[in-house]
Amino acid sequence: MSTLRDKQIASVKQMLNLNSSATKQSEPVWKILVYDRIGQDVLTPLLSVQELRQTGVTLHVLLHSERENIPDVPAVYFCIPSEDNVDRICRDLQSSLYDIYYLNFMTPLPRQQIEDLASAAWQSNSGNAIQKVFDQYLNFVSLESDFFVLKHQDADNISFYSLNRGQVKDTEMESMLDNIVESLFSVFATLGVVPIIRSPRGNAAEHVAEKLDKKIRENLRDHRTSLFSSDPMASGQYTLQRPLLIIYDRGMDLTTPLHHTWTYQALSHDVLDLNLNQIKFTDEAPAQGTSRQVPKSRIYDLDDRKDYFWAMHKGSPFPTTAEAIQTELEEYRKSEEDVKRLKATMGLDGTDLPAEIGSDILNDNTEKLTSAITSLPQLLEKKKMLDAHTSIATAILKQIKDRKLDTFFELETKLMSRTALERGVLDVLLDPEMGVPEDKMRFFLIYYLMGQVEMSKSELDQFTSALESTGCDLGAIGFVKKWISYSKMASIQTAQSTFSTYNKSSMGMFSKLVTGSSFLMEGVRNLVVKRQNLPITRMTEELMDGKTSQETDDFRYFDPKLLKAGGIVGPPKATYSEAIVFVVGGGNYMEYQNLIDSSKPKPGAGGIPSKKITYGCTTLINANQFLKQLSSLGHEMK
């Protein structure tokens, strides 16, 4: 079954093939690709430079960069239809920068911009140079086969902070919601399906659901121009087979995005710089010719289609990943030793061939050596991949040890599962060896949000004084305090009261050096988490199974195919095998992994997933980015 990423890649390749279907036998047309920053974000996780070459792209450049005139080669443009972008395209036309233009816009081109383009083409006498103008409906970023975000560039425009600012104007809010809906519409236009929509009441998610329902409904009215005409269920039958779109609001669960993480991918995003499937960090490496350690920048691409280790272990607890790296390294060294031993047996290492060796043994070893040489490129590629993951794991481990992240994860997991702590919260906040100020603030906010009884002013003052003494920005506390008073936290406390439990292993199997790497797991807790559903995962399972609870009984129901518009409460108890879960206000890898784990085959199910879930969000944020947004909101309340 094709995933959202598969369909987006197919659309991009068709666009690069000058919007015609490519055949395996056809030679690619050589071309130039011109994109804006947003178009670059869309393309980066989808196609490598080599894959662009295979589609005939000889040069790819930014729209607003200085570009030279290149005749006789078609130029494919890929950008959003903003005024700045259209103005720049008009200048390119007037300068006759290229001979042939294929203009592809990620969202529909407004009438005013169409007129501007026509005017520029007429004035420069280049109307014949514009071969095609397309609305591509590709304004979203596919990070995984089952994970998408709406924005990377300009993500602040639709962030949790922007949506919850006290001074936000109605026109600004409408613009943000329209921006979100435009991109979400692109997702379903790419999938070619009309979803059933569910959303909670009384927040931004409800407004997004209403607007998306209206937009899809309007597109379905005219079958000649409908983007969903290829939908096999376009007649409205087999409604239960259509996917369920559940739109949540970030405000329904403030705790999860603050939580210290423990899985490989989530930790990489939390403590290192992981963006658009590329990770960047600085570590220490020996200076050339000396033993002195100097900072060295590292950049690695993490693509689950090409990196089997990342695909297998990105959702694993970090100690499990560390053990897997060690196992893989030992297997690599064994293969390396086998090749060396074969070379020695055959006298290819500079030594004489043993006199007693027989021809049968020689022939057998020749076959083995030939096989080893054939597999050498794969072996070297595996070593390169393992070196990358060793460097990443080493950098993560340094952060874990320096900031006591394993302890924070353990304490927060206990808080979220209503388990008593072994040490007081104030003691943790005042401990100089426990993390950086942001770690302590995240820990305290989880404690504050999960409080079953209202905290007295004297208690809060005591905690804020302790946090202030460690250098914390107290703005987030002000916002959370207001948030609790507004929402009463009833639904959130219910949703979070059964978060998860953990098992601490006493095996100590990671307290040894991983040979060939620089990280030592000694002193780091091997916390093996027993998976339990996060709030959004649990609500998703209820809605997919046609069940309701206090958390979901007032969710609205929209079906764009119904003649009568407007969401209703209490729809038929339908069940769904496929869902797209979307979070307005920002998502995170912890939520994504929890949802994907919940859809994996249950024991005894024969390896067949019972559900297919795709996770999406307006923006992808780590805990410190979310904390800064809460702090900014808190300061603006004063």
**Which percent range fits the helix content?**
40-55%
Give the N-terminus to C-terminus distance in angstroms. 52 Å
Output the structural class.
alpha/beta
Catalogue the unreliable spans. 231-240, 489-519
Strand order of the largest sheet: 6-7-18-17-9-8-15-16
Inertia-based shape = globular
Q: Please give the oligomerization state of what you see.
A: single chain
The rounded Rg comes to 28 Å
- The fraction of residues in strands falls at 5-15%
Rounded mean pLDDT is: 84
Number of strands: 18
- Give the count of helical stretches: 22
Main sheet specs: 8 strands, mixed
Topology:
Layout: H1 4-16, E1 31-35, H2 37-43, H3 49-54, E2 57-62, E3 74-79, H4 83-94, E4 100-105, H5 111-123, E5 130-135, E6 141-144, E7 147-149, H6 160-164, H7 170-191, E8 196-199, H8 204-221, E9 244-249, H9 264-271, E10 273-275, E11 278-286, E12 293-301, H10 308-313, H11 318-345, H12 359-374, H13 376-403, H14 405-416, H15 425-430, H16 437-449, H17 457-469, H18 475-487, H19 490-496, E13 501-504, E14 527-530, H20 535-544, E15 556-558, E16 568-569, E17 578-584, H21 589-598, E18 612-617, H22 623-637
Parallel strand pairs: 1-2, 1-3, 3-4, 4-5, 7-18, 8-9, 9-17, 17-18
Antiparallel strand pairs: 6-7, 8-15, 10-11, 11-12, 13-14, 15-16
Helix pairs in contact: 4-5, 7-8, 9-13, 11-12, 11-13, 14-16, 16-18, 18-22, 20-21
